[in-house]
Amino acid sequence: SILYVSLHRYDEGNFFPGSGAPNEVGSGPGEGFNINIAWTGGLDPPMGDVEYLTAFRTVIMPAANEFDPEIVLVSAGFDAVEGHDPPLGGYKVTAKCFGHLTKQLLKLADGRVVLALEGGHDLTAICDASEACINALLGNELEPLPEDIVHQIPNMNAIASLKKTTEIQSKYWKSVEPYSVPVDCALAESQKREREETETVSAMASLSVDVEQCFPQESSR
C-alpha cells in the first residue's frame, strides 16, 4: 500500500552508501513498489535540472499518478543541489528546479504533500532549495525555468540510467515505458550539430579565402 521512490547518485554501487540499485524493486507483496532512479557515471558530467526533470516526466509522475496516493511524503534531501563538493554529491540541480519538482508533486493526492527536511551539507544550498520548495507549497508564482533547460536532452549517463530503470519498472507500471530519446529531441540535437558543423566549415572556408586574398597568384602571361 506504499510506493517508495528515490533519486540518488549510485555509480554502480560505488557511491555511499552503495545501496539503491535499479533492480531493488521490493519483495513479496511489495514487489514493484520500490523505484530506484540510480544515477550512474559519476560527475562526467554531473546530473542537473534536465536529468531530474526528465526522471519526473518519464518515471516518477507516471507511476505516482497510476498508484494514485492518498498523501505524498517527501524526504527532502538537498545533496543534489549545486554547491556541494564531489564527495558530498557534486551534482548541479538548481534550487529553482526543486521548486518546480515540488509543484509537480502537488498535482497528486489533491495537493496533500508533506516535505520533511532531510539532508544536505551546504547551508546556502539548503536554504535556497527549501525556500523554493516552500514557495511551491504556498502556491506562489515560481520563476520559470530557462527555455533551453526545458527542451534539452539528458546527458548520456542519465539516459543509460533511465533506460535501465524504465526497463525494470515497465513490468510493474503500465504508465512507465522503456525510455528512449524523443525523436523530435534527437532530431533537434542532430540538426543543431549539423548547423554547428556547417558554421565551422563556412568559417574555415572564409578563412581560406582571406588567406588567398592576402597572397594573390601571379597573373598568367
Automatic annotation (TrEMBL):
<protein>
    <recommendedName>
        <fullName>Histone deacetylase domain-containing protein</fullName>
    </recommendedName>
</protein>
<dbReference type="InterPro" id="IPR037138">
    <property type="entry name" value="His_deacetylse_dom_sf"/>
</dbReference>
<dbReference type="InterPro" id="IPR023801">
    <property type="entry name" value="His_deacetylse_dom"/>
</dbReference>
<dbReference type="GO" id="GO:0040029">
    <property type="term" value="P:epigenetic regulation of gene expression"/>
</dbReference>
<dbReference type="InterPro" id="IPR023696">
    <property type="entry name" value="Ureohydrolase_dom_sf"/>
</dbReference>
<dbReference type="GO" id="GO:0000118">
    <property type="term" value="C:histone deacetylase complex"/>
</dbReference>
<dbReference type="GO" id="GO:0004407">
    <property type="term" value="F:histone deacetylase activity"/>
</dbReference>
<dbReference type="Pfam" id="PF00850">
    <property type="entry name" value="Hist_deacetyl"/>
</dbReference>
<feature type="domain" description="Histone deacetylase">
    <location>
        <begin position="1"/>
        <end position="137"/>
    </location>
</feature>
